Amino acid sequence: MREARTINTPLATLKQKVTIKAAPADVYRTLMDSKEHAKMISASAQISPTVGGEFRMWDGAISGFNVKLVENKKIVQSWRCEMAAWPRGHHSELTFEIAKGPKGTNISLLQTGIPKACLPEINEGWRDNYWTPMKRMLEPKPIIIRTRKVRSVPKVRKPMAKKTKPKAKAKARRAK
Length: 176
Description:
Layout: E1 11-20, H1 24-32, H2 34-41, E2 45-47, E3 54-57, E4 62-70, E5 74-81, E6 92-101, E7 104-115, H3 119-138, H4 167-175
Antiparallel strand pairs: 1-7, 2-3, 3-4, 4-5, 5-6, 6-7
Helix pairs in contact: 1-2
């Protein structure tokens, strides 16, 4: 078991809720499977899917270990970020609650113990680096049907017979 470290910096709590139009199993797998996670964030990700297992994303900029895992329902992690204002050795506690809702999967994020100076960047990071790419990756793509405007085709008319003048009248005109 890892020891908690006491730090002398103000801490904050972050709460976010998001709905993803996908099954809870797809959301859980995206968060806990190394290949799926790396695909979502477009960066490196190594995730052990077991309690006590470690994870590292973005070449170690994010790291920690799994505290509790309830498949397709809950993930609790001891989580840290390599930021200038994040004290060395300090971990926050991150909890994802995953539940099926009427419009998809509802994800509740609760992250406690974030150094207050890091809160704005962490808050924005979840939105920009997780929720937006997860929606892009998991939600069904709209089907776009492009139609061309069809011009109406004019009715084909039978050619009219040319009116010809009698040859005599034509000759008479030429003679004049």
